[in-house]
C-alpha cells in the first residue's frame, strides 16, 4: 500500500482475458499502433502525412503548438524501439504500482512534455527539430530511483545499471555529435530522478523567498512626555530610538535614551488611566 489510503488506486486498470492492464501498457499500445501506422504509410509512400506532427521549434513559435503533443506519435520500426517499449511496460508498471495511477500518469505527462517545452525555449536562439518517444529510458531511471538495490540480469543492481546506461548513451550521443539526443537524455533522466525523490518526500525543491523589509517603528506624539509632545525634533529623536531598538535591540540604548523611553512609557500609562476614568 506504500502508506496510501485508496487501495484501488494501486491495482490494475482492468483485466483482459485475466491479464492485468496498467496505464503503462496503454501508453505502450499507443506507441506501438503509431509505429505500425508509420510503417504502413511509409510502405505506401505516404510518409509525408507525418510532417505536420514533427516537433519543430520554429513552427511551434509561429503558432503550431500541437507539435509539442504529437511528436511522440512518429516511431519507426527498430530494435531500439522494441527495447524502449519493453522498458516502458516493465518498469513503468512497477512505478505505477508504487505511486498509483494518478501520480504515474502525471509523471508521464510531465516527462512527455519537458523535452519539447525546453526545446521551444532553446528554439528562440537555435532551431530544434525531432520526433519519436523520448521517455522510456527515463522510466527505467525512475524505477532504479525507487528500487536502487533491485537485482536485474547478471546480478547487476538497478542503480548501477542506470548509471552505466546513462553514461554509455551519453557517450554514444557525443560521438555522433547528437546534441538533441544528449540534451533530451539528461533532461528526461534528471527529471525522472528528481520527480521520484520529490514524490517520496526525500527532495525539497528550493523556494524563493525575498527578504521583507520591516516597517520602521514610529512613535505617536501623544505618547511622549507632555513637555515634548508637540516638539517635532523630539518626535524625530524618538523615531530614531525605535529604529535603533529594531536593529540592535533594547540593550544598545544609552542611559539617557532609556530615560526618554521610560518617560514616554509613563506618559502612556497616565493617558491610559485617564481614558479609563472618563
Folded structure, characterized:
- The chain has 278 residues and is mainly alpha-helical.
- The protein has 2 domains: 8-200, Rhomboid-like (Rhomboid-like fold), CATH 1.20.1540.10; 221-271, no CATH class.
- Helices cover 59% and strands 4% of the residues.
- The protein is built from 10 helices and 4 strands.
- It has helices at residues 23-43, 57-61, 67-70, 79-99, 101-122, 136-146, 158-175, 179-200, 232-248, 255-277; strands at residues 14-16, 19-21, 55-56, 129-130.
- The strands form 2 sheets. It has a two-stranded antiparallel sheet. The chain has a two-stranded antiparallel sheet with strand order 3-4.
- Strand 1 and strand 2 (19-21) form a beta hairpin.
- Helix 6 packs parallel to helix 8.
- The longest helix is centred in the C-terminal third of the chain and has 23 residues, at 255-277.
- The chain is elongated.
- The protein starts with 13 loop residues before the first strand and ends with a helix.
- Mean pLDDT is 82; it is low at 1-7.
Secondary-structure map with pairings?
Blueprint: E1 14-16, E2 19-21, H1 23-43, E3 55-56, H2 57-61, H3 67-70, H4 79-99, H5 101-122, E4 129-130, H6 136-146, H7 158-175, H8 179-200, H9 232-248, H10 255-277
Antiparallel strand pairs: 1-2, 3-4
Helix pairs in contact: 1-4, 4-5, 4-6, 5-8, 6-7, 6-8, 7-8
Could you give a short description of this structure?
The chain is mainly α and 278 residues long. 59% of the residues lie in helices and 4% in strands. The longest helix is centred in the C-terminal third of the chain and has 23 residues, at 255-277.
